[in-house]
């Protein structure tokens, strides 16, 4: 029953915020006559979520009552997880602020280099070593992040409610190509991946979460996300092909799915590729084929 309720709530929120983008006060919210107006301005990459005619300019918003500030922000199409700072009439506010007639609202994304810690925080900072859950559209990115050592859950049959439940219960950051998923109020930490190709996606995520110094490659299973542990050749001899027995002596085994990994001939190529990532260089390499050889 709880899963059904959560699924229904997710569907309703996605419908509500996904299609109600407007900035013309002649338009009206559903079943509600607008009484007041406020002005909104979105900065930097938050403009990615706006239609071209609303980007990098002040936009009027019409409303009735006194909605929480989070609601109109998401009406414009900007997920709350992308917002780091809200300024109303030159004062910082939280998501619990209720919009008033005539308010002037400035909305900012995550700051990369500016320390805003003295200001009120919209959410707690991410937990310790960040862990992620990726939606069904990001399978290649999941493998790439696992290659670099990051804890990333992924299945190609995840339902939205599953992603939300896992993110909340396991304190994971949601990565998604479906920005509407990030409107769900239960998700406190999430990011809409802008790029389409995996090379750009991995650099985008590393930069967004400042992960370059946290890279520890070749410690996770690319298939299931389990941790790799050393295993003696004798313990897995019956699982190895004849040439693998002959030419390789160092092996690792996934502690979850028991897949066997060893250093294949492409290891040096992969090390060069990872070195390129850590120095912000964008090199093309297919890690799904060139990582450790592995026994599937």
Keywords:
Rossmann fold, 8 helices, Ubiquitin-like (UB roll), 3 domains
Describe this structure as you would to a colleague.
This protein is of the alpha/beta class and 296 residues long. The protein has 3 domains: 11-108, Roll (Ubiquitin-like (UB roll)), CATH 3.10.20.30; 124-216, Rossmann fold (3-Layer(aba) Sandwich); 218-296, no CATH class. The chain is 26% helix and 17% strand. The protein contains 8 helices and 13 strands. The protein has helices at 2-18, 70-75, 139-147, 160-170, 198-208, 242-247, 267-278, 287-290, and strands at residues 36-42, 59-63, 85-88, 91-93, 104-108, 132-134, 152-153, 173-176, 190-192, 228-231, 251-254, 260-262, 293-295. The strands form 3 sheets. Strands 2-1-5-3-4 form a 5-stranded mixed beta sheet, with no helix packed on it. The protein has a 4-stranded parallel beta sheet with strand order 7-6-8-9, sandwiched between helices. The chain has a 4-stranded antiparallel beta sheet with strand order 10-11-12-13, with no helix packed on it. Helix 3 (139-147) links the parallel strand 6 (132-134) and strand 7. The radius of gyration is 23 Å and the shape is elongated. The model is unreliable at 15-23, 26-30 and 281-293 (pLDDT under 50).
